[in-house]
Amino acid sequence: MARRRIAPEYILAGLAVLTVITIVLFMTVGARGSWGFVLSFRGTKVLTMVLVAYAIGLSTVMFQTVMQNRILTPSIMGFDSLYVLIQTATVFLFGGLAAATVHPYIKFSIELGAMLVFSGLLCLWMFSGRHRSLHLMVLVGIVIGTLFRSMSNFMVRIIDPNEFARIQDSLFASFNSLNTDLLTVSMVIIGLATVVAWRIGHTFDVLSLGRETAINLGVPYKRTVLIILLLVTLLVSVSTALVGPVTFFGLLVANLGYLMMGTSKHRYVLPATIMLGVICLLGGQLILERVFNFTTAISVIIEFAGGLVFIILILRGAAR
């Protein structure tokens, strides 16, 4: 007798309830003193982590849709390496003190602009020609990402040890020292990206069927994919500027979303992935703060779990 699956609508409703419970627990557990301060302080952290989970979840699912591959994330294009290179080069050229005193909006604009220019040139160069493809673009992105990492490693090896200590924290994602000055501009950018993604959202399921099928069904393939890649760049840049590079988080929550929903339809997978991201970030941060007393970084746990998922996906793919 075939096992009956739970309808996706019921799973989404359960995830929504669990998301609300996680947010309430994060806001209230261990709270002492003035509720005005507690709600303001923790509310800002909740808003930041929700934005990061939303940006990473949406960008990863869209990227995997156009690539037709669930083990790839936007970081493979070299975004994380470019972010690390910018941080390292800033300290190497101007010193740690000057880098630490740069206005957040100027720093955010430089990082966002560099990632957008890099991604825009890569997409237009590798994907706009007649015989060029997404796979060639990804391969070139991997090579350029390796170049960025090599340049960063070179500067790290010759930099002053005291200056290296200053940039070490910025090379890893941190959810404890959040940059709240950028919340408003991040919400505006993510909101605009969401509107564009919603306008072309009807093509996502068709794109996941492949290039030829999408073209035969009337989707302007090249233009739609270029728009999606630029949206992915925008979302990844915002999340990276807020908390730092998170390589495997998108891979982890996106595949959990596919697994829980049991379908590839984006109207189910996208909200499930975003809610799972919120639950993982807030739940993980809550356990980190209340159980381990900040003795470890949540980004380390995320990267470890995401790395295990990546290996499992590789082995399952190899087994098939």
UniProtKB/TrEMBL annotation:
Any matching Pfam family: FecCD
Membrane-spanning residues: 12-35, 47-67, 79-102, 108-127, 134-152, 182-201, 213-236, 242-261, 268-288, 294-315
Protein localization: Cell membrane
Cross-referenced InterPro entries: ABC_BtuC-like (IPR037294), ABC_transptr_permease_BtuC (IPR000522)
Membrane topology: Multi-pass membrane protein
This protein's UniProt keywords: Cell membrane, Membrane, Transmembrane, Transmembrane helix, Transport
Record family assignment: Belongs to the binding-protein-dependent transport system permease family. FecCD subfamily.
PANTHER family xref list: FERRIC ENTEROBACTIN TRANSPORT SYSTEM PERMEASE PROTEIN, PETROBACTIN IMPORT SYSTEM PERMEASE PROTEIN YCLO
Official protein name in the record: Iron chelate uptake ABC transporter family permease subunit
Species: Pelagibacterium nitratireducens
Lineage of producing organism: Bacteria, Pseudomonadati, Pseudomonadota, Alphaproteobacteria, Hyphomicrobiales
